[in-house]
Amino acid sequence: MMGMYKLLALLFVLPCFCGSAMASKKLDLSLTKGAGSTGWTNAKSQSCSFNAGDFIRAGALGLNASPGTHSDEGAIVAIIADRINANGGYFCPWQIQCANKRKYTTSPTSYYTPNGVSSANCMWLCKDGFSGANCGELTVAYDSDTRTLDTVFGAPGVKTDGGSNGNLSANVQVFTKFWRNDFRGVNGADGKKKNDWGEVNNVLGVVKLLDHGVMAAPVQVACQWQNWKDVTSFVGTVASCSDPVLLCQEGYTPNSNKTDCVPVTEDMLQTKGKTFCPGFDREKFRSAEHVLDTSGSDCAKYFCKDAGMAFTSATDHTCAECSTGVKGGSNPKDGTCVKCSTGQYFEAKTGECESAGAYSNLDLVYGKGKDRNTQKDLDKQCWTILSPANYKSCVETGGEQVTTSEGEETTIDAILLRQ
What we know:
Blueprint: H1 2-23, E1 26-27, E2 56-59, E3 75-85, E4 88-98, E5 109-112, E6 123-126, E7 130-131, E8 136-137, H2 149-153, E9 176-187, E10 193-209, E11 213-226, E12 232-240, E13 245-248, E14 252-254, E15 261-263, H3 266-271, E16 290-293, E17 301-304, E18 309-311, E19 319-321, E20 328-330, E21 337-339, E22 344-347, E23 352-355, H4 361-366, H5 388-397, H6 414-418
């Protein structure tokens, strides 16, 4: 009787399973929580066709092409991120091996440490604006590891011994895993075409290795197998899911073309995230001789840091000597040196040369338009003022707008003058 119940239960469940399998050729059976796909295009795609470039570092695709720790389980070695966030990942060489597991409740994709690899062969690689452990925000220049990544990752080889010992699949973070039953064209034991099953892992992989960075993208790795009873597994295909993104090692940042990684400099850090005004090229800023001016509401400028210096020209921002004072100075508009002609004076606020008004000797003593009789107050007579700025204001305004700073001695003591 108990056997009858088991048979009825099997007949009840079997059509439901087959129906769901045939309804879709691509089944996401939630085998893993996976990594958050934020920041990575097509990270969870189930149909990827971009060239995976130099993803495979050792081993090969195809049946019997590259056995791993079991002679009937194919494997490849690739540089992938086993920890992923929106700004980058922690990359190591990993052996991706296809285990002989036909049941969809257990993942057939296994991860092992390849031959010749240790934690010293791993490194955080990050997007523009981020660096270091966990790809934090780039805020300081680093005393960075200047080894090339080819040296860091070494020359990993396929591990072929140890069986299932050392399976570290739980340590590898992937975007998603899903089973597929559309891997057609694999011959069964009877020589006929089979509608075989397989599993796809979406990993964050290196598709091109640079000196101090990588081009990385979500990559699909498909595990397949031949036969049903005497199973042989292998890595069938790899495919990139999107155009790659440039990631750099600590102490390096993308160049302007986003094609390579260059050392981080103090200049880059000071200009990071800023929009510059027309005529002020970011690439020409040098923190050693320039100072940033972010007082503008929309864009930033920079000028020569040292007094008495100005740009050689509007296009050459090398700082050169520039006489300052009444006859010239640095133009606050473009940082160039302004030299005024005879009969002109330099207006520092506008950076322009203004026509100098003609002042008589009486103007210079008492203020413009004043004389001894019209400016009898000795305290307001300009010749007694010590401050050059206040003296200039006194002359220009006829002694009406003399400004002083509290506590500053600005005039000769009038009482002493009367003695």
